[in-house]
Model the fold of this input.
Amino acid sequence: MMKLYRFLLVFLLFNTLGLSWPFSWLFSNPNTAPFGTSLWLQNEIQILKSQATNIDDKVLRLSLVAYINAHKKGYANKQMLTVIDYSKPSFEKRLWVFDIKKGRTLFNTWVTHGKNSGGINATSFSNNPGSFKSSIGVFLTAQSYVGKNGYSLRLKGLERGVNDSAYRRAIVIHGATYANADNIRTYGQIGRSWGCPAVSADLAKPLINTIKENSLVFAYYPDRKWLSKSRFLSA
Done:
């Protein structure tokens, strides 16, 4: 009975914080196919999808294509991939962190969008300073720091005209008290930021420490212009 009680406590803790279920941390699922090949892509989708069942197949595939292209261009030497799906409403867990090297899902949690990007659903995005909107596209994580929002992580946008103003706009990953399940229970959605992808305050430090310094962040929205012109999305 005590073992069952402990099991339930661990399950509730991981679900509340937005962590991936711990068993995915215990087992590695390395992809043995040559990196960047069609077989590698197919295998990686199957490996990650087996753990992150709530991610859209198309979004996962596009994020991995972006990851392959980024590495070919000399970016993202850290084998981590963060995916944000802004096509999902904010009350759903729409951020994932994948350990590509070991084939594991490390985090799956809620993430905010900018207050001028929309309400429950984000529908409008911008690269402009002062817009209070989120940006989509491919980013590279930079250094962590402590600022007005506590422990935070700078992002460098890699796509000209789409998100390359992110660094000077101070679009950063940080913790926020309004980015958790309590807000969903009270308001039916998490709070909104000034454009930053904010996560739960309890989760910010471990998540940031996992992905900081040269890992890829892929922020998706079905924007046809971006999808057709991005230099990271051609297979």
Q: What stands out?
A: The first strand starts at residue 80 and ends at 85. Residues 7-14 have pLDDT under 50 and may be disordered. Residues 79 and 101 are 6 Å apart (CA to CA). Strands lie at 80-85, 95-99, 104-109, 137-147, 150-157, 172-176, 199-200, 216-220.
